[in-house]
Sequence to fold (466 residues):
Amino acid sequence: MIDALHRLVQKFTGRLSLALRVAVLTTMAVAVTLSVVSALVFFVVRAEFQNSLDDSMYRRAQAAVTSGINESLLTIPSARSLAYIGIQPFIVKGGELLPATNGASDYSQLKGYRELEVSVGQRQRSARTVFLDGVPHRVVAIRAGAGTALVLVQSMESNQDALARLKVILLVSSIAGVAAAGVAGWAVAANGLRPVRRLTAATERVARTAELTPIEVTGRDELARLTTSFNAMLQALDASQERQRQLVADAGHELRTPLTSLRTNIELIGQAADNTERHLTDDQRHEIMGDVRAQLEELTTLVGDLVELARDEPLSRDPEPLDLADVVTQAVDRVRLRAQEVEVEVDLSPWMVIGEPQLLERAITNLLDNAAKWSPPGGTIHVSLRDGHVTIADEGPGIAAEDLPHIFDRFYRSSEARTLPGSGLGLSIVKRAAERHGGTVEVSSPPDGGTVFTLTLPEHRPDDQA
Fold:
């Protein structure tokens, strides 16, 4: 029933604006409420009128019975006074309905079984409504002796007139109340939905102009909270766009160097091929090709790092339970092949995690590559895994205090690192990998030299899968 009513309301209000819909629903609610209240008032007043009339007629009938009724039926002291105020008295005796006064109207059609029951003692009194010539009359009867009942009949025309006036008053009041509710509902809806309209205008402005300007917050209600949340979303979107612009700008800056070197070398080879007088020796060709290969490797690494950092989710990654010690071992084996001038000491203990093997191995490889790059020839890199803490310590010169807060920023390179190969993205990938696995990465530079990176990942227990 409720669902059907909801669908009906939705059908008629679905195409209206929100403010008009609120006003219409408010008006409908007030109309239903006023209708129910008016109906209750009308029926309660009608019942009260009837009860009051019955009580008055019972009292008069009892007073008439108390004054006495004889065989002639004409000596009831109150009979004439009752007729004077519009109440017609009758006597039911021996199953016959007889007028109690001379000249009384002939209401023989009033005879009913209830009055007979009262006369024979089956009831002490009765009351009912009958229509005479289209006019409602109230008929009450009380026992007046053995086999006798006194019946009083009174027109209810005055009560009906009062109820008719009450009906008109209730109808006019309800219409006025519904109209006032409609106006008030529209005013409240229009005023209360002003912040929503401002949010709508702001959203349309963002879609039209791409301007992420926050809007003013007024009040402390739910709409104010919605506005605050919308502003926070705009700020987050603006920050995301700013990061994207910065990434593109930094990437363009970093890509310019290897591309310029490649173009220079290719132009040099082309000029040597076109001009026989500028012949390149074998050593020069080997040097140029070696430089081209190095620049291509750097460019490939840079593009891969950019792709990894630019996309929201890594491609084809499936988190799975794995032993972090195995990942560290694979990364160490990889780095040992390309950094043979340094020693790598490993001390590992098992530590189960849920993770992406490729991403974790790349992060640890980046840390090891960084340590190998800064370690002196013949130096040692210490790698340990204890209680989820992967510690990689080198014997290099360390990191300056002013560089430590920025070491994980994209494209950040200290003044000492600018002359060395690298894109400045490796440590950013480490930080992202740690965050994706619910872990952290920290860096410190002890006073006696060297750098210590600590990658911490939470443990995975079999019962955690429940």
In short: The first helix runs from residue 2 to 13. The radius of gyration is 50 Å. Residues 70-75 have pLDDT under 50 and may be disordered. The longest strand covers residues 135-145.
